[in-house]
Amino acid sequence: MKTEIIIGEDSTGKPAVIDMEELLATRLLVQGNSGSGKSHLLRRLLEESAKMVQQIVVDPEGDFTSLADLFPHVVIDGSAHSVAEIEALAKRVREHRVSVVLALEGLDVEQQIRCAAQFLGALFDSPRDYWFPALVVVDEAQMFAPSVSGEISEETRRLSLNAMTNLMCRGRKRGLAGIVATQRLAKLAKNVAAEASNFLMGRTFLDIDMIRAADLLGMERRQAEQIRDLERGSFLGLGPAITRRPLSIRIGSTRSGPKSRAGGLMPLPDAGPEAMEALLHAELEKDVATAADTAPPSPPDQLSRHMESLNVEIDTAPSTSTSDAMEDVSDQAESVLNQMADDPANAYLSSANLFQSFLTRCRKVGMIAPRMDMSEFRRRFAFALARIDSLEEVDQTQAKRLAASVEDDILAPYLVILRSAFEGAGSPDEDELAAAYGTSSPGRIKRLLDHLESLGLIVIREEYGGGRTVMVPGIAEAAT
């Protein structure tokens, strides 16, 4: 069976090839500034190898969904599925060897990162029987494996970085060959970039990126200037699957293309200034009214309506009635949190989605949510999810004390363990912990327990018979 594909041609006009069998074993890193032809390179590689190997594409911008027009790729819309569904789809992708494009353009940045992390994690954790060879292409990899914290939460960054590290460091034994593409090498986590043995470096202008690219290509730093002079669609290649010496490659043509093209020039409208002004202002009131109808009411308006519904007179002086009203608001908020915790699907949603759902539910019952930030909401929802309010009051107090310093992302499963310990019911089973942690992967639950033990929050004692005992310091042990 032929294992090589033609990716383009070198400076002498000879075909430049990539050995796909070697690529599956050694992984690939693609780098290039916006406009350098990075997406075009990935498209060429995917088109030429589409009939040779299963392909899984993580596509944050919707650039590769058009592959489904020419090849039997299935487009998975990340915005249309829950976390549980994304993980289940990933397992089926590995089981049935379906080439897919995970389209994430319908999500905001943090949701894109979390969705991709859950999908990659489920691919990695799939049963051994499904470890078939597959290319896993991650475009804009600096989003999913950032070198430093950005605007996303630390929990999301850690989740995504762990998934990307598993893909590049440990994926080969599971048949997963990572191909990561980035605009900025300096923004990509070094432990992810370092695992690639093949490189295709496109045009870049920043010194720090040129130096890192030259180092990866084994070039002297004074030679890094030639990376700045590369033309659009030209890349310097190196690696066991490409060439043993740095080689300039001009990427060949593709048959498919992006769904939309934002680049290039196009004629401006012919209408004059008066006509354009009329077009901008025509029926503007309708758009304003529609926006006002869909926008959430401001907190003061919410509070005023809620106080009126309670027949409480609002004045500038504090009163017992006002205090009682605010306590009632807090009670209603707790009720909303408990209702959300009753829905098993909510445990698999992102914190941002949960918070928006919480605010929407509060508005529907005509009340204002207690003033809280995202972190406080996550912690209160974790307590509701773990049903800590079912404990005796003294146990609730101790549970809050023990959980005070626990990180938000592991709080819910830790509270489930605490509740079971207080109730003397033994440790919760893996399904209960998985629901609290928002995953269906047994491997992640094992890693979670190991992490909790490393933090000193629990103690695990393995038994010869295959069972184990989980103990919480200060609380009686519980056997599983």
Automatic annotation (TrEMBL):
Pfam families the UniProt entry points to: DUF87 (PF01935)
Looking up InterPro entries in the UniProt record yields: AAA+_ATPase (IPR003593), ATPase_Atu1862_pred (IPR014588), HerA-like (IPR008571), HerA_central (IPR002789), P-loop_NTPase (IPR027417)
Domain AAA+ ATPase, first and last residues per copy: 24-214
> What name has this protein been given in UniProt?
DUF87 domain-containing protein
Write down the species. Answer: Pontixanthobacter gangjinensis
